[in-house]
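In keeping with the milestone schedule agreed at the kick-off meeting, the structural modelling team has produced records for the first pair of proteins. Each record is given below as a sequence line and a structure-token line. The laboratory manager (R.T.) confirmed that both were archived under the project's standard naming scheme.
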Amino acid sequence: MGKFTNRIKNANLVKKLVHCVVGLCTYPGIAVANTLRFRGAEQLKKLPPSNVLFVCNHQTYFLDVISMFHIFSAVKWGRKDRLGMPYYMLNPFTRVNYVAAEQTMKSSWMSRLFLLAGGLTVRRTWNENSKEQRAGLDPSDTRKIERSLLNNWIITFPQGTTTPYAPARKGTALIIKHHKPIVIPVVINGFSKAFNKTGVTLRKRGTLLTVTFKEPLEIDYEASAQEITAQIMDAIEQSKTFMPEVMKH
């Protein structure tokens, strides 16, 4: 038992160290070269420490998640709508995991390092640059996510791609039906303008980056996966209702 406890402590120490290093390295890009504002901090303070699922639209491979990590830690230190100075990284909020494609997280040394911050890799038989038919989550990946919900918050991107208004897969809805987490919709904006898609390289300075945490969804867990998926897509403003007219034709 003592050895197991020590391993847990060491893993948490490594996780905090990675959060701190990644946070300090990315802070200038999101809070100095650009401006990050967030809404819904009061929602975060009301949440339990586990069984919370954040469903979010997706604009970059890494900065979306990293910015949410910044916000969680800043709110832990009392911030309400902006990060302020990054002293919050001295004791970051680390009870959060994120879902990411295995292919993406093995693509570079940076992505492999970021896995230590709480990544849950899932195997997919498609990628957004191909015309292969999408496949759902592997059952073992689903179990991995469900186990994490027992202890932590989880961030997931139902669309699984940075392409705006892309259809969502039903894997997220199936997890919601089975495990009944609190579901918080998150809408981000500005990241695709400020950063390149695959890394943390600045494309444009002076961009307003926004992250909005909405109220928990009221979900009918007896509804079909398709109905829950539609509800999620509407909440994260990625449904056809929010699509610009030029994209509907």
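The second protein of the pair:
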Amino acid sequence: MDIDGALGRDPPERGSTDGDRLPRWVAPLPAALEDVAYRFVWVIVAINLLGTAFGFWYYRFQFARVPVEMWMFVPDSPGATLLIALALASWAVGRGSDTLAALAFFGNIKLGLWTPYVLVVFYPEFLANSGPALYAFLFVSHLGMVVQAFVLHRMTDFPVRAVAVATAWYTLDLLMDYFVPVIGEVTHTSLPYSDAQPWFTSTVLQVAAAGAVVLTVVPVFLALATRVETLRTRA
């Protein structure tokens, strides 16, 4: 077995001519980079599983404060990296799942952008609490989540049912995180300021929630736009 066979598979077809390829605004990565991701898919799976383990460790204090029944809504970023690890692994063994791919796409876009957003908005205390090295790691690694999300169009065309499942889950997660927790308090990622603290003309919670709302809508649009463009190029 050659090294590609051990670490991944030949990438799915992207289209043989420029006219067959998706527009850059829905598929921004170079084809060569997408190919590398699939040829070394098990490396990416392993990196995401390591990130998932670190993320669960990072949330350990929040788990201790939240009722067990609400734990599924707590680890947002590690949940997203776990989903993309599962989506890529399922493709690698020949059992790809459109639903897993859609969930992974939503999670990695949403949390990959939301975390840098709050790191910048609330940077004084985030930087003071975590230190420059961890702050930089969190910022860069979450942007990496966004990058890897854009390889998923090679393994799925985002059927409407899969997008509906992902939209439903991340809408529910949004409600539990910021608005209407069923048990206990809201479950959003801990912030370095109290939720009620004034922040310009709003509060810390409202500023964080506003970013989460916008970044729940963005992957819905991108997934459906990718589907439309995929069907258009096939036609």
